[in-house]
Design brief:
75% helix
Length: 80
């Protein structure tokens, strides 16, 4: 059985951290297309420090919800 909140937090930290790092590297031209696409979904996400923080926050929220739901479905299908 997966614990919902810790799994959601783990996925949120990984996805939010990844979005933040890509936002930072996009300042130098690496991953800027990813940031442009995700910027359509995550308000304020853009290359740069402030944009990377915004992307990290949105990514954490998105990752937490997705991880929580994934753990919930896993527990449901596993019969636990």
């Amino acid at each position: 059985m997966l614990r919902l909140k810790p799994f959601g937090l783990a996925v949120g930290v990984l996805w939010g951290g990844g979005c933040f790092l890509v936002g930072i590297t996009a300042m130098f031209g690496w991953g800027d297309e990813f940031v442009k696409v995700m910027g359509d979904l995550y308000w304020g996400y853009s290359p740069g420090i402030v944009g990377a923080v915004m992307g990290g926050v949105w990514g954490f929220i998105d990752g937490f919800i997705g991880g929580f739901l994934l753990a919930l479905l896993y527990n449901l299908f596993a019969g636990e």
